[in-house]
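Subject: design request, 219 residues
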């Protein structure tokens, strides 16, 4: 489903029926500016300085990641904790814990993210931890401007089979990183981020991305 946020009725939407939700104009210009200013004061870590992640996403440039400060994190969750999100998370049986993991991301020229379905969390296992189960992935954009030829699109796939019964991926949606828009989709789902083109110059694809997760006894 893709719609303007002002036309969206969360109580009438279900991720069980439609696994991809795209809301345009979710954030106001003032909200985007507030988060960009918070990003300016954040401590960024480059992909090359995160060895387990860099191993999982090779040849993806050198995008940056930063933690969200508590005040901005609270404001963020107050907005994105939609009723349809809570309903989907609570639909899973025998939940013993609920978790979130969101961070700032900055993609510049040459940066991308290769195809994955958000279930391969080898870099978390490499840290000696068993991660909770990712249920919904979210990405939302805070840059002030983004032109159609600058790249950075979020590509969503669906799985099909060829004549030999082998799994193949076909493009399902191409989601532009429009300022203020938000995308939430059920996990697992194969997706990638297109490489930011040199035409973007010094412009950065600024986002918050992460997951709503659940923990279950014995898992």
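Subject: RE: design request

Done. Sequence follows.
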């Amino acid at each position: 489903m893709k719609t303007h946020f002002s036309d969206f009725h969360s109580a009438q939407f279900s991720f069980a029926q439609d696994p991809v939700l795209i809301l345009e104009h979710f954030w106001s210009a003032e909200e985007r500016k507030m988060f960009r200013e918070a990003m300016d004061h954040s401590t960024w870590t480059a992909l090359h300085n995160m060895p387990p992640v860099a191993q999982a996403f090779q040849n993806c440039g050198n995008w940056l990641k930063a933690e969200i400060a508590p005040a901005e994190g609270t404001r963020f969750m107050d907005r994105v904790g939609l009723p349809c999100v809570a309903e989907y998370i609570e639909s899973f049986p025998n939940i013993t814990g609920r978790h979130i993991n969101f961070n700032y991301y900055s993609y510049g020229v040459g940066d991308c993210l290769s195809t994955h379905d958000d279930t391969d969390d080898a870099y978390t296992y490499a840290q000696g931890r068993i991660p909770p189960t990712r249920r919904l992935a979210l990405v939302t954009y805070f840059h002030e401007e983004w032109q159609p030829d600058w790249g950075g699109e979020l590509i969503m796939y669906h799985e099909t089979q060829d004549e030999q019964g082998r799994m193949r991926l076909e493009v399902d949606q191409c989601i532009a990183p429009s300022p203020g828009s938000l995308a939430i989709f059920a996990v697992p789902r194969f997706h990638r981020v297109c490489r930011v083109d040199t035409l973007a110059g010094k412009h950065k694809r600024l986002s918050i991305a992460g997951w709503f997760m659940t923990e279950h006894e014995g898992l």
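DSSP finds five helices and twelve strands in the chain.
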